[in-house]
Fold this protein.
Amino acid sequence: MKQMVLSILTKDRPGVIADVTGAIFRLQGDLADLNQSVLWGYLTMILIVNFPDTVTKATLAAAIAASEGAADFQVSVKELAAPLTSGPPVPKETFIMTVQAANRGGLVYQVSRFCCERGINILDLTTTLRDDRYVMALQLDLTGIVSLAALREDLSAFADTMGLSLTLQHNDLFQATEEVRLH
Amino acid sequence: MLQSENILATVEMIQKENLDVRTVTMGINLLDCRGGSVRATCKRIREKIASRAGRLVAACDAASEKFGIPVVNKRIAVTPIAFVGAGFMRDDFVAIAQALDAAASEVGVDILGGFSAQVEKGLTASDRELIAAIPEAIATTAKICSSVNIASSQKGINMDALAMMGKTVKALAEKTAAQGGFGAAKLVVFCNQPGDNPFMAGAIHGLEEADAVLNVGVSGPGVIARALERRIAERGVAALPLDELAENIKQTTFRVTRCGELIGRRVSEALGVDFGVVDLSLAPTPAIGDSVGEIFKILGVDAIGAPGSTAILAMLNDAVKKGGIFASKTVGGLSGAFIPVMEDAALAAAVGEGALSLEKLEAMTCVCSVGLDMVAIPGSVDADTISAIIADEMALGVVNHKTTAARLIPVPGKEAGEMVSFGGLFGASPVMAVKNVGQSSRFIAWGGRMPAPVHSFKN
């Protein structure tokens, strides 16, 4: 058995998932996990698939290309040296940072650079632009942060310098206020 | 997947709409602190409070920092001291109050409640001594709150205690005349007092409770007000029936209560103390935008106290309960809408405008939690009239099977319309007019008990 990571980029339409998983099925692949997202009509999908040893990157790419309507697929395949059974453990605690500012170039870069410089991993990020106001919500892993108070001070100074409206709250708060079940 | 709209709604609640956890209150049983002397008792009380609540403030601050939600007050509620100090005399009870004050300062809490007695059916000698000690105990301490439960739906009203409380309220106000009678703001007379209420001045650690327990009081009238304004702006007045606004209050209360539940659970875990209840009361502060009174105007009366105000409060109180009950594992305490006049800038303003009278306020207390709360009245009002105002409020509680209370402040040297200010969370308001002063003494003089109503006999 070998494991491959497969990514597809295409214009969204009905049948994309059927095309991709149909090709995998025909190659006797076993789908381990899948995630997909659609942004402004474009779909991107990442899949982890276990294949028989006979399947190669080339046969997989060919099988997908042979699918009906696969002409505009951009496919990338990576074969893993050692198969995975799951992703890295999700941190026990995560935090949500929101950033709001008048729209301008470099906002995401500046915020992500701030995080990068402090060893903060961004687990998830969503952005929206409304009425020329750019809003970011980032889920952060602060495992490497020693002092939350010091980070808040740093963030406050960063927000002042960059002209951002910025908040940092524990993820549990949003789970508590948005979901029926409270852990 | 992150939902930025939901995330921003929660962030706005905290940042712009005054959402906070009003109080984390640790209830502590002191029944095992009675020593052979008052000195020994005081020592044991201080040791027990230090051992139980020594880390309370730090744990609350840590949770507040972590979750980004302010915990405005950290408090302690203790076993009603008349039980703890059974057999002691008046001066001994004053000494216990001072020991409690010292203990509260040692652990750094803002306020401590439980200088209390429960006398709804009869008064023991200890109860009488404690009540006699209240004026000096409260006037000579900074952080101690007192409450006396003089009525219940099961037992009726203790009219002897009622007469004593009118005099006690007046004596306490006069003893603290230099601060506008502020002492009386720390004394509340109850009917059906709950033993797990985290709010002051009426917090006690009831006899039914475990050795220590953590109760949380949420706040959030500003959050409700802003949510209603947003809903009205989105839908327009014409297409928005009242039940949809009630639904809006319910949903918002759910979110507010959940914040309290979260903080309560985490602080409990950190301290290894059982989490008791969330009291989902809408507790206003004098800050602009954190007012229950403001919600009346949003919901359609141009003056607070105008006809319709009681109905609005009934709906608000009900929607708050419905939204909050599902949000918390266990709710308790008072759980409803508070209308503490001095602590709510909009209510205080309505008194100044002449829109809100004592009589209308009394009517409104039939449908909300607590009662005549933080009401400044002229210092010239006699003790029997104060007792009679309390009697009416107690009767509402007895008959309606609900908690009612009176926290009246007869402001020494001031008459109706004059301003009184206590600062901080205690707020400010004009003194309210009291009609028919001095007309109730014969009623108060009967003493004895007002029997419980027929519908209390359910066995």
Summary: Strands of chain A lie at 2-11, 30-39, 42-51, 74-80, 95-102, 121-130, 133-141, 165-170. The two ends of chain A are 38 Å apart (CA to CA). The CA atoms of residues 119 and 144 of chain A lie 7 Å apart.
